[in-house]
What we know:
Elements: H1 2-20, E1 23-31, H2 47-51, E2 74-79, E3 93-98, E4 101-103, E5 106-110, E6 115-119, E7 125-129, E8 139-141, E9 148-150, E10 156-163, E11 170-176, E12 181-183, E13 189-195, E14 198-206, E15 210-218, E16 223-225, E17 228-230
Parallel strand pairs: 1-16, 1-17, 3-6, 5-11
Antiparallel strand pairs: 1-13, 2-12, 2-14, 3-4, 6-9, 7-8, 7-10, 10-11, 14-15
Amino acid sequence: xxxxxIPCGAVFALLLATQSNAATVTGKVVFSGAKPVVRNxxxxxxxxxxxxxxxxxxxxxxxxxxxxTLRYTFVWIKAGLPNKPWPTPTEHAQIxxxxxxxTPHVLAVMTNQPIDIRNDDPxxxxxxxxxxxxxxxxxxxxxxxxxxxxxxxxxxxxxPVKCNVHxxxxxxxxxxxxxxxxxxxxxxxxxIKNLPAGTYTLQAWHETYGxxxxxxxxxxxxxxxxxxxxxx
Length: 232
Ligand SMILES: [Cu+2]
């Protein structure tokens, strides 16, 4: 058994070395174009959906934060990583159907990472991802039914998800073969940690405003700030 302690120690030392070489990239996604018109979603065709809200839900296709940044932007390392497998998290990602909306609107996972799909509504949903690279599927889910656990084996940015019952329902799932990605929230920022030193293509994707690429170079232990500005 003693011989085992040597490789374990070596692995531990290697892990420490890897982490101390890890760079962090942070930034924000700024929007400087014409303010998007945000329409109300008409759920009157389905009273169970409409009853779930005291005020109409807003379209999420272009959500501007109060600080001038853009929500639901997927930011990821598109190219430049060493060609090696990255461990898949065992932690399940979540997507919920609540009030006849998908939460979150934009989800990012690793390839093969389990995704729990829940229906918290008192109504049927039909979850229907529309991938081009992964396999398409289409399943109904009864009110407050058991979660469905799914995953996507191949990298794909992005997979639109629709509900065949409620045409306004739309989500996007980004599936990446590595862990270097983020989605902007209500402050419009993103953080990508533990990035090995190197030169990369960093891409921002937004469902309405499209993609933007930037070349970045990070050294060991760097903390870099990289902003994106959409001006549409
Ligand atoms: Cu639905």
